[in-house]
Amino acid sequence: MSHPPSITLVISAHRQAASLRLILERLAGSPVRPAQIIVAEDGEDSETECVVREAARHFAPAPMHLRQPHTGFRKCVVLNRAIAAATSEYVVFLDGDCVPHPDFVADHAALARDGAFVQGRRAFIREARVPEFLARRAGLAKLALTGGMHGMAKGLRLPLPLIRTDRDFHGVLGCNLGVWRADLQLVNGFDEAFEGWGHEDADLAARLYANGRVRRVVHGRAVVYHLDHPPAARDRAKSNRARFEQGVASGRRRCESGLKQLSAPPGSRPA
Q: Domain map of the chain by residue range?
C-alpha cells in the first residue's frame, strides 16, 4: 500500500438516534473525514431519518441512509446493502452505539495493510452514565475520573499503536472493523443466514482467514467508546454459533447468501 486508502464508513443503527447524532457530530469535527458515510439502519425509525437529514449540511457528499423493515435482527442484510453501495477502497464498520475518537478515521486509514483486516478496540461508558454523556453534560475525561467508564486502557490513544497479527477469533468485533472492499467482495460479504444476535462477525473473519487474510489487532489507535445498554436477545446465539463453527471446520471461503444477491443497492438515497 503506497498511500492511505479512501474510506467508506458504515454505521449500523437500530433506534439509536441520540447516539447517531453524537457520532455524526464527532465525525463532522474530525480532522480527517471518510470519503463516504453510509448509515445502515435495520429498521425505519423516523428520528434516525431526521438525524441523517440534519447531518447532511455538514458533509459533502451527504451521508447515505439505507433502511429496511425491522422483522427481527437482520443486521447482515443491511450491511451487505451498504457494502454494495460503498465507493471507497476500504470499508470501516462502526456500530450505532459506539462513539469514535476524533482520529478514528485517520487511524484506520493509516493502519490498513494489504492482505489484512484491522480490529480496533473499545472502552465502555457505563449504562447509568450514558444519558449525561449523550446530553453533553459529561465528557470522556470526567467519566473516566468518576467511574463512569470501564475498560479505560482500551480507550486511550497512544503515541504509537500496539499491533498484534493473528488469525484468532477472540475479540472479533464488527463495531470497530476495517476491511478492504475487494476482500469483502471476495468472501461475498456478510452471511445473511445469520439472523438474531451473535457470531456473524466471527464468521466473516473465518472466511477472510480461509482466503489467506490475517487480522491486525490494534490497541491505542482507532478507538471507540461503547455506550452500554441492556443486552440484545440471545435466542439465536446457539444456532448461529453452530453455523459459524461448521464454516470454520469446512474451510468455507464464501457464503451463499450475501453480496452476490445484490445487483444494485436497492433503496439507497442521499439524506
A: 7-256
Q: What is the CA radius of gyration of the chain?
A: 17
What is the b/e burial string over 166-198, where b = at least 16 CB atoms within 10 angstroms of the residue's CB? Answer: eeebeebbbbbbbbbbebbbbbbbbbbbbbbbb
Cell reading at 54:
440534519
Summarised one tens digit per residue, pLDDT across range 97-130 is: 999 999 999 999 999 999 999 999 999 999 999 9
Q: Which of 19, 100, 27 is nearest to 59 (CA)?
A: 27
How distant, in Å, are the alpha carbons of 6, 102, 216, 222 from that of 3?
9, 21, 18, 18
| Residues 34, 9 contacting (CB under 8 angstroms) | yes
pTM for this entry: 0.93
CB atoms within 10 A of CB 211: 13
Range 7-256 has CATH code 3.40.109.10: no
In the sheet with 90-95, reading across from the earlier edge strand, the strands are 64-68, 36-42, 7-13, 90-95, 176-180, 116-119, 214-219, 162-166
First vs last C-alpha separation in the chain: 33
